[in-house]
Known about the structure:
alpha+beta, Sortase, Chain: A, 8-stranded mixed beta barrel, two-stranded antiparallel ribbon, 3 helices
Amino acid sequence: MGSTIGTGAAVVGEMLRFRPWRRGPAASLLVSLVAAGLAGSFILADQPARRSSGAPAGAIELPQAPAPGVQEMASFLPQPTPAPPVSVQATAPADPPSPPAAAPRRAASVPTTSVAPPPAQPDLHPWIASSAPLGASPPVRVDIAAVRVTARIGPLGLNRDGTLEVPKDFSRAGWYTGRPTPGETGPAIIVAHRSSRRGPGAFWTLPQVHPGQEIVVTRADRSRVLFVVDRVEQHRKDAFPTDAVYGPTPETALRLITCGGPFERTLGDHYRDNIIVFAHMIGWAN
């Protein structure tokens, strides 16, 4: 610091030497002031330099938050929701029940909040109790009142690999043209989807069918064939009972087929099993 003050005094002395000022008390005072000012400037110059990019003295600096990380989420298409498991019953064919009689008219009742019963089957003409085979006529509609199934029916063939086609419309059923029409001797085959990504299919409630319940198939000739359920079976698709389903029978039979069991993504988002309803004819009506 002493060297700094001396340097300042030397600079002032040189200034006075080249000016026509007389040396005296005023000059001495000027030298002292200038030297003190220069010394102060040098002292301030010795302080550490402040950050050029920092905030001014007395300001509050806010920390910069790190940029949020990007989270990747796998999106899956909604899955269909399977119905509660239904116990599979394998019983011997039941004896044909008596043909249903026309229901008598009932007095009008006061509406209640209870669940409405399943819709009654159309009864345009009395049923004829018979298991005798009928002539050929393609099916156009299937009704199962007990589980509220009503679906239109279209024809189905085979795929190139020999497997049975399935309906393109999930709300419709299909009849396999390689087997008899419902009402002819032999097994008539009708299949439909259980569900789709948009909701239930035509045979969504088929696994809830029980032996003894009735199935009505309407044909193109406007006749209706009445079947009764013998049994309901569930099989893995890789162990499908081909002979029992497609094999010849001496009676007028019906097979309804849909998917069932667990819904497995490892199988390409398909059900693991098949549900098969076995039924036989007990009557018909025009």
